[in-house]
Amino acid sequence: MKNFLIFGPPGSGKGTQSVKLADKFNLKHLSTGDMLRAEIAAGSELGKKMSLIMAKGELVPDAVVIEMIASKIDSTKGVAGFLFDGFPRTVAQTEELEKMLNARGMKIDCMLVLDVDHDELVKRLILRAEQSGRPDDKDPDVIENRIDVYKEKTEPIIDYCRRHDLYYPVDGVGSIDDIFGRLCAVIEKIK
Ligand code: AP5
Ligand code: MG
């Protein structure tokens, strides 16, 4: 099993690329954002609590997402590895993920980082708000807060991954297919 993190600020294309990569390389795509939105759509108590935090662009508590991920890891069979999208998002989540994987004879093998400039991120998210609409895309202040939270709480994971030789930056600007090609080239080398 090879396990990949796909990393990058809000709007960098993690979700878009994950679907294509999971399909090509038989990886299980695990997006904590998607799991949380599914809880909200189901109207669960957890979903109700988390929606207030997500609407502001803040992070939900580490314990909530760690528990979600652990149960998915244990219930998934028959894949070549996991592709974690939007998780981990804090250094504490990263350390927990390493522990969880190590306990099951696995590790983090590669961190793919999508590099996209600030103005392009905002442009993509505003466009998505117009087209379909995730509540956290609707308010430009919330978009800016999500980007700030990424810089403050999530970017430090890059240092952690650099120290562990897991860091693979990829240019995240261009056509979806070109970026997919760049990501595939990295994964082919790691496999
Ligand atoms: P999450 O769902 O992870 O959202 P995010 O990180 O803000 O990122 P997005 O999903 O908006 O962007 P993306 O990088 O996936 O890009 P996408 O492919 O969609 O998290 C949401 C919230 O949940 C958080 O704020 C937090 O509250 C909570 N949460 C989630 N995980 C958590 C965790 N682990 N710990 C704590 N809290 C957590 O693309 C964006 C748009 O751009 C799309 O419209 C797409 O069509 C378009 N696009 C994609 N690629 C291109 C391209 N190459 N050119 C032009 N447009 C493109
Ligand atoms: Mg996403």
Strand and helix layout:
Layout: E1 4-7, H1 14-25, E2 27-31, H2 32-42, H3 45-56, H4 62-75, E3 81-85, H5 91-103, E4 110-115, H6 118-131, H7 140-154, H8 156-163, E5 167-171, H9 176-190
Parallel strand pairs: 1-3, 1-4, 2-3, 4-5
Helix pairs in contact: 1-9, 2-3, 4-5, 6-7
Bound molecules: BIS(adenosine)-5'-pentaphosphate (AP5) and magnesium ion (MG).
Residues 8, 10-16, 32-33, 36, 53-54, 57-60, 65, 86-87, 89, 93, 124, 128, 136, 146, 176, 179 line the site of BIS(adenosine)-5'-pentaphosphate.
Task: Describe, in plain words, how this protein is organized in 3D.
The protein has 191 residues and is an alpha/beta fold. The protein has helices at 14-25, 32-42, 45-56, 62-75, 91-103, 118-131, 140-154, 156-163, 176-190, and strands at 4-7, 27-31, 81-85, 110-115, 167-171. Strands 2-3-1-4-5 form a five-stranded parallel sheet, sandwiched between helices. The model has no long low-confidence stretch (mean pLDDT 96). The site of BIS(adenosine)-5'-pentaphosphate has 28 residues, from helix 1, helix 2, helix 3, helix 6 and helix 9.
Comma- or semicolon-separated keywords:
191 residues; five-stranded parallel β-sheet; alpha/beta; globular; single chain; binds BIS(adenosine)-5'-pentaphosphate; binds magnesium ion
